[in-house]
């Protein structure tokens, strides 16, 4: 089967790291470039982490640092969720200095010889900034936009209703959802169904293979966070599902919803609420083929160390 040209915009982040490993190793996914932003960690760590993960995957593609803060809001990161440097229990030391750029995504799109599938795994600030600067280029180069963002019915992971990426920069999310980019949301309604049990993470962390132990150490922090925050014996791994459904949309079932992003500053900030009077309907995934996705992750991320049965333990 033909490969799909892809640009990933990300803020690594534990589950972002898994998603980048998948994007780098899956032959169906032809990674053109990566753009980074604040979110799970600060821009400097996110950029360092993206380069680190791509290096582990043996892939050399441009990594372009983008936004260091939201369009209008104060910067908030998720240190308590993703660890002091954004990659769980791993500590690589201070990151190199980076120069933020509101035009990072524009530069990445110009590197692409053809149209691409844009996959956003963090706040939507880089894409909103690109739409402000050169909307014609974005619309001509982005054939589909798949975002790990939002939620309809599932509980929020930032407050009662909101998903973190949208909560970080609701103004950017509202601009993107209203831009007519064929945006597809892979939100908490489906990503919360992609779960790796603690026993599988222990198997990775205690493997004799250093590559497995690296992933186990990455996920160990996530497991502890989910246990403390939600009483789960394992971790929700959101972002790899966006990669999977961007390349194989037939693995998911979706609905179209008119959505409104709450732009307030109260407990509903960033909620992607269903609104019959909202803008263009947005494709929103509501379920996915778990066996296919588990097979994919075993094949390209978890190597010889796990089997699909480990996801059902």
Describe the structure.
By secondary structure, this protein is an alpha/beta fold. The protein has a single domain (4-196, 236-312), classed as Alpha-Beta Complex (Inosine-uridine Nucleoside N-ribohydrolase, Chain A), CATH 3.90.245. The chain has 13 helices and twelve strands. It has helices at 14-25, 43-57, 79-82, 104-111, 125-133, 135-141, 164-168, 170-177, 188-191, 198-205, 210-230, 239-247, 290-300, and strands at residues 4-10, 29-36, 63-65, 116-120, 142-147, 183-185, 195-197, 234-236, 252-257, 259-261, 272-274, 282-288. The strands form three sheets. Strands 3-2-1-4-5-6-12-9 form an eight-stranded mixed β-sheet, sandwiched between helices. A two-stranded antiparallel ribbon has the order 7-8. Strand 2 (29-36), helix 2 (43-57) and strand 3 form a beta-alpha-beta unit. The radius of gyration is 18 Å and the shape is globular. The chain starts with a strand and ends in a 13-residue tail after the last helix. The model has no long low-confidence stretch (mean pLDDT 95).
What's the total helix number? Answer: 13
Helix content: 25-40%
- CATH class division: Alpha Beta
Order of secondary-structure elements: EHEHEHHEHHEHHEHEHHEHEEEEH
Alpha-carbon distance between the two ends: 32 Å
Nearest-angstrom radius of gyration? 18 Å
Biggest sheet layout: 8 strands, mixed
Strand content of the residues, in percent? 15-25%
**Anisotropy-based shape:** globular
Q: What's the total count of β strands?
A: 12
- Strand line-up across the major sheet: 3-2-1-4-5-6-12-9
Label the structural class: alpha/beta
Q: Which regions are unreliable across 5 or more consecutive residues at pLDDT < 50?
A: none
Q: Please identify which CATH superfamily we are dealing with.
A: Ribonucleoside hydrolase-like
CATH topology: Inosine-uridine Nucleoside N-ribohydrolase, Chain A
* Residue-averaged pLDDT: 95
Per CATH, the architecture is: Alpha-Beta Complex
Task: Quickly count the domains.
Answer: 1
């Amino acid at each position: 089967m033909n490969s799909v040209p892809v640009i990933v915009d990300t803020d690594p982040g534990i589950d972002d790291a898994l998603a980048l490993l998948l994007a780098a190793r899956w032959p169906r996914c032809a990674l053109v470039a990566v753009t980074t932003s604040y979110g799970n960690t600060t821009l400097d760590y996110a950029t360092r982490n993206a380069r680190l993960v791509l290096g582990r995957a043996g892939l050399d593609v441009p990594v372009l640092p983008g936004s260091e803060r939201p369009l209008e809001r104060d910067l908030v990161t998720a240190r308590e969720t993703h660890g002091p440097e954004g990659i769980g229990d791993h500590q690589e030391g201070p990151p190199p200095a980076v120069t933020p750029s509101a035009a990072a995504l524009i530069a990445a799109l110009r590197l692409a010889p053809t149209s691409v599938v844009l996959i956003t795994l963090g706040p939507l600030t880089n894409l909103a900034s690109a739409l402000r600067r050169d909307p014609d280029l974005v619309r001509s180069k982005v054939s589909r936009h798949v975002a790990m963002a939002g939620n309809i019915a599932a509980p929020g992971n930032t407050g009662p209703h909101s998903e973190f990426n949208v909560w970080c920069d609701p103004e950017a999310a509202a601009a993107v959802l209203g831009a007519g980019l064929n945006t597809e949301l892979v939100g908490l309604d489906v990503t919360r169904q992609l779960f790796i049990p603690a026993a599988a993470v222990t198997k990775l962390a205690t493997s004799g293979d250093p590559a497995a132990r690296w992933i186990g150490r990455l996920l160990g922090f996530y497991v502890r966070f989910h246990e403390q925050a939600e009483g789960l014996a394992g971790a929700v791994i959101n972002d790899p599902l966006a990669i999977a459904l961007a390349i194989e949309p037939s693995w998911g079932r979706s609905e179209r919803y008119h959505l409104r992003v709450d732009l307030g500053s109260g407990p509903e900030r960033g909620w992607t609420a269903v609104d019959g009077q909202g803008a263009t309907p947005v494709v929103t995934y509501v379920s996915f083929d778990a066996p296919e996705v588990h097979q994919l992750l075993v094949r390209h991320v978890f190597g010889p160390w796990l089997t699909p049965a480990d996801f059902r333990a």
